[in-house]
Structures
1.
Amino acid sequence: MSELKSILDEAEREGIIPSQASERLLSFLVARGVRADAAVSAARDEATSGAAFSDTETPSFVRGFHDVLITIGIVVALAGLWGIGSIYAVFPAIIVLAEILVRRQRLALPAVALTIALALWTGAVSAMLLQGSPQIIGIGDNNEGLQYTLAFPVVLGLFYLLYRIPLAFALAIMGAVVVALQLVLRLLGWLSGDPLYAVTHGGVLSMLAVACAVGLFTLAMRFDLKDPLRRTVNSDIAFWLHLGAAPALLYSILWLSGGGPGALSGLDTVSMRTPVVVITVMALMLVGLIIDRRAFVTSGLVSLGAALYGIFRQGNAQVDTYIFVTLLAVGVIVLVIGTGWMPLRRAVVRRLSPGLQKRLPPA
């Protein structure tokens, strides 16, 4: 019994079961004749079964329509409160709902909705305090951009410490990466004596952006490799980090190729960026197959469609033709990868070293 209790305590620390639930679950299992050795044996049998891992990327925050219904209520209620009341009234409402729905009822999808609502509230309040109106501001060449983004890792980090929501932790990390990027740019500007360093040195900005994107992806992989079977909170954190790292990699590489911010705006013309987009997205798809993360595939589809649009337009096709050919090409790519995900992944993973294969999710 002590061994079973230690297993449940460890599951509680890992976030697999709610906090302070191990004692009740222990008595529940013991009353029904469950023993520690039986639980361990069942877990080992499942770990060695290939059928249990047909899909290791099932989002844990989608559990049923009950959560969906409550989430709709959260969105509507907070939107109404935001519209008729003060913007500062939204924050206590988020905290009250988090206490009820997250801490007590442990509802996953409402936790995601409340985290997104808190992020939007943080952005609106930060913009209002800096500029006097609740509008999202851009990252400028002064301290306003730094002060604006600094609020995100602080607020969302505290929210994660209170409620242990993986999305809050991932957003706090992403915010910290943006803050670190701005601090480095300001340090370089101070050392060079150029207050507009980020504007006058676009190449340096692009390389720093690529470094930050790679760092975010590396951090996501650290969480992923801790849980290759995708059963703990580490997998959820990695999911959200990958969701942010994939577009960050794509856009930073586009910046480095010479497009700069807004590099996708000219993809319908003949330029070197069109093949860069195609090659980059294909590389992200390959990475997504290897690590079994479809986020890497889906994040680049819009950019891939824009690039294919430019390629087909270069061929002087009719307007209706190249638009529909672009849609058809993207749709075929999605269907091929979607329906053949597991066979394609097995074919790719088998070509990796045995040591790396053991660290990745089963293929």
2.
Amino acid sequence: MRDRFLAVRHEVGKAVVGQHEAVDGILLALLCHGHVLLEGVPGVAKTLLVRALAEALELDSTRVQFTPDLMPGDVTGSMIYDTRSGDFEFREGPVFTNLLIADEINRTPPKTQSALLEAMEERQVSVDGQTRRLPQPFLVAATQNPIEHDGTYPLPEAQLDRFLFKLMLTLPERDTELEILTRHAHGFDGRRLSDAGIERVADAATILEAGKRVGGIYVDPEVLGYIVDLVQATRSAPSFAMGISPRGGTRLLAAAQAQAWMSGRGFVTPDDVKALISPAFRHRVMLRPEAQMDGITVDQVLASIIDTTRVPR
């Protein structure tokens, strides 16, 4: 089962060159029932990456372009009057899928952003007094552009806390970009994903069964204490106006268990925890204004916390 997940990396690589951290982050999120926020400038294959993953994992995926005029019912679904039966019936929205691509989520107002809160946390949608369960597994992959701020609505802290990871998709190095252009020169087109030859190496049942095994990964009390020390260090860091909540600590723990399982181990090591601190914490903390003026970044503060926190042996 683990080999199937590792094979996903190879299959996604047929369509997306590089971005290995983002691929691994989404796989870990699927294993521990999390969601991911993908941040990067336009054109770094954020949407293509999720579509390729859905193809390799044999999952349904839906893309929603978030715009200022998008309404909550456009995402969750709504009651529609049926003229034939003379009654109202529920028409499912695009959220009823396995992988929801929420493209440019910060371009829609808070009212519509909040429509995803129940779906992300409870895996259900409540409309007209009735609760409807979402397909399993369910993952929201939301994208946002870090350089455009006009006409955007920053996600509130309560919603950011629902994301397991914030993954940064960076611009490629020269060799990687040359490989991208070479593929396009030979006819590759990201709009025709079927031409990439991606094979389906896993399915929904595989993901759900793997998630159960991840939950059984052993965590030593010393490692649990290490996670608590890291969480509490963010709350006392002078550069942070807001540190990590208990939910952030539990989600880091779940991600570390998934990382250990993917690495073929039955136990979590401190290295598993350290490797995931930045993607798991960077969107859950808030820099003080004076730290921003000094040019300090969140990742720099988190790296300092890792260096100064005692690691269990």
3.
Amino acid sequence: MAVVLAVVLTALLAGGCGGRATTHHKPGTTHQEATGSSGTLLAAKDESGHRLREVPAAGAPAVRVEARPDSEGGWNIHLTVERFRFTPESVGGAAIPGRGHARLLVDGRETARLYGPWHHVPAGARTLTVRLHADDHTVWAVAGKPVEATLRPGAAAAPMPTAASSAPSPSPTADPGRTVAITVTGTSVRPRPSRVELKKGDRLTLRVTADRADTLHVHGYDRELALQPGRPGTISLTVDRTGLFDVETHESGLVLTQLVVR
């Protein structure tokens, strides 16, 4: 009887340890040494010290991020992922392709883990980066680079990387609409502030060059743009609301122009 029991236990243990990957790593190993068919663990690390886990471009996970202004301040960011799903129930387990969580970096600094597609970010952020991690906290990577998406709040959504192709596909040329160029030197605005007449549905691009760091704000549309000294910055929008809207700088408090949408 004892011999039979030993054989049964041996068979059970052997069946639980081999074969397909699980969400648990072996005792005595670190999270990043978890086993499974999960790509190649690289020596390279990201800014927070997480090692990169290389997977083939074909079938690799991908992420796109967009930011929507919140009515009470800040931004609601939304993630769109491909070939990936959030698995908060198995965080800390083995790295399994197509599973894990995301990490949010605000202005280059890691601030939060994301276990779903939505997250709120307080006002003031200049750049947002979302990076995909495996359950063992390693970073999914393709060609030695993390799978991530970066944007400036208020700008267009970052493009979704295409795993099967290294070159971006051509896209239809959109109507650029009207462009207004403005230069700010100290407290001087050129051309002098005036009103820009527009029709509802028109496309507008503001190209602003300032001699100091500042933040451009389009009132009524809750659109902002970080201005760098001497570097032209552009912001584009479709004017879909009628009324009179100021375009000003936050730090210097200058009105650059007014939008009249009819």
